[in-house]
UniProtKB/TrEMBL annotation:
PROSITE patterns: PROKAR_LIPOPROTEIN
InterPro entries linked: Acyl_CoA_acyltransferase
Stated name of the protein: N-acetyltransferase domain-containing protein
Organism encoding this protein: Loktanella salsilacus
Domain of life where this protein originates: Bacteria
Length: 281
């Protein structure tokens, strides 16, 4: 990715000029934003925006570290509970600095929690279209290669999607292997053995070495109903392993999984936003 860092004594931001398309138009992204004071943050933000305009781009989205495969979104509302594993950092000053610079929120997300005893009790109707299998813990590189292929197909119609290479994908996810718990990772396979969907869950190690919550981090499917069955398998397994709470992490407000989360009784505890700026004229 083409990037440039702007920083001063109290703030830092990275500009990526080759971000994903926004409504079909080329777009830059701003990521890695951190500031100690609003004044310092405003200064680097102004530099970053000017750099994008000087490069001939007319649209910016942020926060986003180049694409949605990497970190993106600001926390916009919270109940004050501690951050969970891999959650975007909460910087209360950041959204206001972006909106003061002219950005508006263009996409909304949330995280919710639900008692596993409640979530695991919601069973989907049986199906012969696929079977759900937990990962056996072997051949992680082959596992992630399958996940990469299905993710690329499942997410291609998502807003702000930008493809990455399999090598880049593996470089991001292989370091996570020591944290993975196979009992919380599931695949939906069709009768012919092809992959219909996957779900990645993980213990919430932000709580320490004996966490009480498990995170439903990511799932994707290419077949109707697979997501619901995968979620049920995760909830059931997490409850059996002794966790008491499921965190439904970083769900887009308009995603079908948002409706499923609400149906299962999950309560929203954090909201997030992605922001955009279009140059006039």
């Amino acid at each position: 990715m083409t990037s440039r860092v702007f920083q001063n004594d109290g703030a830092k931001i990275t500009v990526y000029l080759d971000g994903p398309a926004w409504d079909g138009a080329p777009t830059a992204t701003l990521g890695g934003f951190a500031c100690k004071t609003p004044e310092a943050g405003r200064a680097v933000l102004d530099q970053a925006i000017a750099h994008v305009w000087d490069a001939g781009q007319r649209r910016i989205i942020g926060p986003m570290d180049g694409d949605t495969w990497h970190s993106y979104r600001f926390v916009t509302q919270t109940d004050g509970s501690p951050a969970f594993l891999l959650e975007p950092k909460d910087d209360p000053a950041a959204p206001a600095l972006f909106t003061d610079a002219g950005f508006t929120q263009i996409s909304s997300y949330f995280s919710a929690r639900v008692p596993l005893a409640t979530a695991a009790a919601t069973s989907p109707a049986p199906t012969d279209d696929f079977t759900i299998q937990a990962w056996d813990g072997t051949a992680p590189e082959a596992l992630f290669a399958q996940v990469y292929a299905l993710s690329s197909a499942a997410f291609v119609r998502n807003a702000f999607y930008k493809p990455i290479s399999q090598d880049a994908f593996l470089a991001m996810y292989m370091p996570m292997v020591p944290m993975l718990k196979p009992e919380l990772i599931f695949f939906a396979r069709r009768p012919d053995g092809t992959l219909a969907g996957f779900l990645f869950g993980t213990p919430n190690y932000a709580e320490g070495f004996a966490p009480r919550s498990a995170i439903l981090k990511t799932y994707a499917s290419l077949q109707k109903g697979a997501g619901q069955h995968l979620a049920h398998a995760f909830h059931t397994a997490a409850a059996a392993l002794g966790y008491d709470t499921a965190i439904h992490a970083l769900i887009h407000d308009d995603n079908l999984s948002a409706l499923r989360s609400a149906t299962e009784g999950a309560q929203i505890f954090r909201r997030y936003g992605l922001f955009g700026l279009i140059r006039d004229g």
